[in-house]
Structure formats: C-alpha cells, structure tokens
Design brief:
The strands form 4 sheets. A 6-stranded mixed sheet has the order 6-2-1-7-17-16. Strand 4 and strand 5 (91-94) form a beta hairpin. It has 12 helices and 17 strands. With 434 residues, the protein is an alpha+beta fold. The longest helix is centred in the C-terminal third of the chain and has 22 residues, at 407-428. It folds into 2 domains: 2-157 and 307-428, 3-Layer(bba) Sandwich (FAD/NAD(P)-binding domain); 161-302, Beta Barrel (Elongation Factor Tu (Ef-tu), domain 3), CATH 2.40.30. 33% of the residues lie in helices and 19% in strands. It has helices at residues 10-20, 62-72, 76-83, 96-110, 137-147, 192-204, 212-221, 225-229, 281-288, 341-360, 372-382, 407-428; strands at 2-6, 25-29, 53-56, 85-86, 91-94, 113-116, 127-129, 152-158, 161-163, 173-177, 180-190, 256-262, 269-272, 299-301, 304-311, 322-323, 326-331.
C-alpha cells in the first residue's frame, strides 16, 4: 500500500507516522528548504515557528485532556514532545531542534517513510494535504480547484469568543440586532462614562506587531476594532457598538451597546460581534472585561488577525477529515480550521488512521463528540456559525446532564467524561487499526 502526505509540519508528520506504523509506504513531501516560507528558519520536519510551548499538561483542562487522548491514540508528536521537554512549570514546552530531530528519527525508524524535498503542485488521491497556514501559492491554486474556489481563505480575522456560563446575565439582555429580526443577540449596554473609559483603554492597549507580508492584505479586508476606535471618540458608536433600535426593559436608550452572538446550539459560546482585533491576548482579557456583563468572561478563543490559509471546512470535509465526494483525499492540520500545535497534530493522527482504513476497505473513525478529538472532528465538518480556526475547549462538547456550578469541578467532569468515552470507544473496536 502506498500513500502520500503533503506537508511536513506537525499534522503531516503525525499522519505519516500513523500510516507507516500500519504498514503503508509513505511519501512525505516538504517543500522547505527548497522553497522557503516567511516564518520558517530551516527545513526540519515539525518545526515550531511560534512558541515552543504545547500548553498545559493539567488533565482537568481541555489542553491537558487532549494530550491524554493523544497518548491513548499513540501520538508521535506527544511522545517526541516529552523526550524534548524543557522546564516550563505546568506547561509542556520543548527544545525545538531536539523535538524536530525526534520526529525525524521516529519516521526514519519505521523504514516506511520517504521524505521528498520539493513543492507539490498537483493533488492526487490516497493523500493527506497538511500544508498549514502558509500553503504555497501554486498548491493553493490546486486546493481551490478541489474545493470549488469559494472555501479557501488566506487570512484569519476572528473576533473573540467567550463562554455563555461566564456572562453576567443580570447586566445583559436579549434583543434583535438594530431592532430588526428576532431577539437573538445578547446586548451589553454602556453608559457614556463606561464607553469612554473602554475606548481609552482600547486605544492604549498593546498590539501584536504584524509581519510585513501580513499587513496589506489584512487591513484592506478588515478593520481591527482598536484601529476603528482611533478614528474618533464616536467611531465605535457608529460602528460595531451602534445602539440603534436597542432599548432596555423600560424603553431607555444606551450610549453604546456591545452585541454577542450565539456560536453553538448549546447556548455555550458567544462571539463579540465586530471585535476583530490585533491586541495581544492578555490585553484582550483586560480591556474586553471592561464591557458590562463580561467582567468575569472566560475566553474560549481570542481575537486574531494574521496570514492564515484555511478551508471553510463544514460542508466540504467529512468528520473523518476526508473530502466529500473524493473520500480517499484527506486534509489535516490548521488548513482544516483547527488552531494550535496539538490540535493540528491530532487532526493529522486521525486523518492518517482514516486514510489507512480507506486503503484497506475498513470503516473510518469519528471519535465521540464528548472527547477533545471528536469535538474537533464535529467542528470542522458541521459547524454552522461564523467558521474560524478554533482550538479545543470543553465548550465545544455537549453540556453535562447535571449543571455543575463550581468551575474546577465542572472541568474535571468534562475531562473524566472525555477520557472515559474514548477508552470505551477504543475497547469496543479492538482488532481494528486504531
């Protein structure tokens, strides 16, 4: 059996390993260092280009639960990370060069992976495309042909998302957007004093410094909320914080209103409408918690603005990461709409296992939606909201049957449910490839 994997990042390397360990001969294409990218330094497989941290190992967090799931699924990425681990408290941080070397060493040891250093410009079947957020222009053209040209995005301009449980419902209320349609938006009303203090903090907050190759395209297509605030004292009031058509219970008017839109069917996630931002993450927490009702907001996703090639995957990808109508072609990694190092690797792991199943006539795997891996599979294939890259969160899973008020106990319950359900899933399919 033969297959090819396009892209030697975390997702591609993990997918190649999962195929190779099952006896598939893999050609792994990586264009670096023959063709450079604006951010990579060299040609090493699974090179970490941003932080060297793979986030928390606390099993009672979504990130910690994901790591435990990946351990149960025999993840090469996780194993290499622990070998290359450096001190970082409760986080799993790695020596970048050693981490990359361990990945290459493990792939070489399978005797089934051939690394080819060239740019791919044609997409075959029996393949996994894992080319990441900086997919080359030539390959992007081919991907557009596969997906019909309307599903491939080249920059990420996403507003923050907070959990519904963390919103102070005593300070907010449901109403229609600008007085039109149904009362589907949560409204956070502001007095003039609150608004002016918020705008001042927003203008002064620290921003991410964009790379040269990101600046033009992003600002032509989307205005960061902090840039809009700089245009004048009332710019936000005539933009995303416009209070037109919104009245309180007694008919009172407001100086400004921040609106939140539901992001799921569970009333679990809310998007800050119009709040695309380039603020650094700690500043987003500090400034956006000045909004009435969001004083204790729990951020599931921060606002981001950067160059990021990704697919609008719902309706295009199946939950097993295969392409609808071309089911021996898979995508994996950040290009599918997952965000984060281990989320990317997890998608590659699942895609690798499922391509093997396709090659051998087996049934592909969709893990329980209560798990971190399964919730990502559901997100990229079925999400009906404003689809933007997302990392794992307990809020992406179905709510618990019994509401648990204590935050720590609630997270513990989500983690225990995820690992129990994954363990049962694996036990129920003993003898197959997973």
């Amino acid at each position: 059996m033969k297959a090819c994997v396009i892209g030697g990042g975390l997702a591609g390397s993990e997918a190649a390993y999962q195929l190779a360990k099952r006896g598939v001969s893999v050609t792994l294409y990586e264009m670096r260092p023959v063709v450079a990218t604006p951010v990579h330094r060299g040609g090493g497989l699974a090179e970490l280009v941003c932080s060297n941290s793979l986030k928390s190992v606390d099993v009672n967090t979504a990130q910690g639960t994901l790591k435990e799931e990946m351990r149960l699924l025999d993840s090469l990425t996780l194993r290499a990370a622990y070998i290359a681990r450096v001190p970082a408290g409760n986080a799993l941080a790695v020596d970048r060069e050693r981490f990359s070397a361990e990945i290459e060493k493990a792939l070489d040891a399978t005797g089934m992976v051939t690394v080819v250093r060239e740019e791919v410009t044609r997409i075959p079947d029996d393949a996994i495309v894992a080319t990441g957020p900086l997919t080359s222009e030539k390959l992007a053209v081919e991907i557009e042909k596969v997906c019909g040209g309307q599903r491939l995005y080249f920059y990420d301009a996403a507003a923050p998302i907070v959990t519904g449980a963390s919103i102070d419902r005593g300070k907010v209320f449901f109403a229609a957007r600008y007085g039109k349609g149904d009362a589907d938006y949560l409204n956070c009303p502001m007095t003039k004093e609150e608004y002016l203090a918020f705008r001042e903090a927003l203008v002064a907050a620290r921003r991410v410094i964009l790379k040269d190759f990101e600046k033009g395209e992003l600002f032509e297509n989307c205005m960061p909320v902090e840039e809009m605030a700089r245009r004048g004292a009332d710019a936000l009031r005539f933009g995303p914080l416009r209070p037109v058509g919104i009245r309180g219970a007694d008919g009172e008017k407001y100086h400004a209103v921040v609106q939140l839109r539901k992001e799921d069917d569970y009333d679990g996630l809310y998007n800050l409408v119009g709040f695309q931002t380039n603020l650094v993450f700690p500043e987003q927490e500090r400034v956006f918690r000045m909004i009435p009702g969001l004083e204790n907001a729990e951020f599931v996703r921060y606002g981001v603005m950067h160059r990021n090639t990704f697919l609008h995957s719902p309706g295009f990808l199946n939950a097993d990461f295969s392409v609808r109508g071309r089911e021996r072609l898979f995508f994996a990694g950040q290009i599918t709409g997952v965000e984060g190092y281990l989320e990317s690797a997890a998608s590659g792991l699942i895609a690798g296992i499922n391509l093997y199943e396709r090659l051998t006539g087996g049934s592909t795997h969709v893990l329980p939606e209560t798990t971190m891996c399964g919730s990502l599979q559901k997100y990229v294939s079925e999400y009906r909201g404003d689809f933007q890259p997302m990392h794992v969160s307990f809020a992406l899973t179905p709510p618990q049957e019994n509401r648990i008020k204590d935050k720590a106990l609630r997270k513990k319950a989500y983690s225990e449910r995820a690992l129990s359900d994954l363990t049962k899933y694996i036990e129920n399919i003993k003898g197959v490839s997973i």
